[in-house]
Design brief:
Shape: globular
Helix content: over 70%
Number of helices: 9
Largest sheet: none
Low-confidence stretches: 142-146
Order of helices and strands: HHHHHHHHH
Structural class: mainly alpha
Radius of gyration: 18 Å
Number of strands: 0
Strand content: under 5%
Length: 225
């Protein structure tokens, strides 16, 4: 049951951080009203994915608040702080899921047997696609203008990697990596030194993020079947 609870809380986190969080909230995180609005979303999405109001949600929202405060006030901006922030959030979700695995069985949605599996897939795809976008942007910031096509391609490759590895098709995931390598080889010729560096760094962090999301989730999936 802990894996089911993790799936519901993880999806709630991804929705709160990557779907519903606005630019205003991100830019104004040091303002109490913006931070409060974001934590309100964190609580609301947990209620949304479980259709319950469990006391453990307050504990997880409080942990989320403190992690965000540390990131906002004590960590330098950049990729390292971003990755550390997300790792702490995921660790807190896993901790609550282990301490309170009954959260999902107590949900009225628990009667829908395939729902936790769908939650995990949806959360993984969103986290890989959208979360990776921000990671790439932080790494290549100041190295030239990005392109809309590059962003969409990044979403696609990370989402596909996630689906393939979660689905148990590692050979096809390897094929995606190979195709990406071929694309890089063909693209290098038409770019200057700065463009090549940007392409290499962006592609490396994109693939690394996709794999870092997909592999652990693929290891959890057998617990949900």
């Amino acid at each position: 049951m802990a894996a089911y609870t993790f799936a519901a809380l993880f999806l709630a986190h991804v929705i709160a951080d990557y779907v519903l969080q606005t630019t205003w909230m991100v830019v104004n995180k040091k303002r109490p009203i913006a931070m409060a609005a974001h934590i309100g979303l964190v609580l609301g999405t947990m209620v949304l994915t479980t259709l319950t109001l469990n006391p453990w949600f307050l504990a997880l929202a409080t942990l989320h608040l403190w992690i965000d405060i540390v990131k906002t006030y004590a960590m330098p901006e950049g990729l390292g702080a971003y990755v550390a922030d997300q790792l702490l959030h995921i660790a807190s979700i896993a901790g609550i899921a282990l301490m309170a695995p009954q959260i999902w069985p107590e949900s009225p949605l628990s009667a829908i047997e395939p729902l936790p599996l769908l939650y995990m897939i949806a959360a993984g795809v969103l986290f890989a696609a959208r979360g990776g976008q921000y990671a790439v942007a932080m790494l290549v910031a100041g190295r030239g203008d990005g392109s809309g096509i590059g962003v969409v391609m990044g979403w696609a490759e990370r989402a596909i990697l996630c689906v393939l590895l979660i689905g148990g098709w590692p050979i096809w995931a390897a094929a995606v990596v190979a195709v990406k390598g071929l694309y890089l080889g063909l693209s290098f010729a038409g770019r200057d030194r700065t463009g090549r560096r940007r392409l290499f760094l962006g592609s490396a962090i994109s693939l690394a993020w996709g794999l870092a999301v997909a592999v652990p989730l693929a290891m959890i999936m057998p617990m949900m079947q």
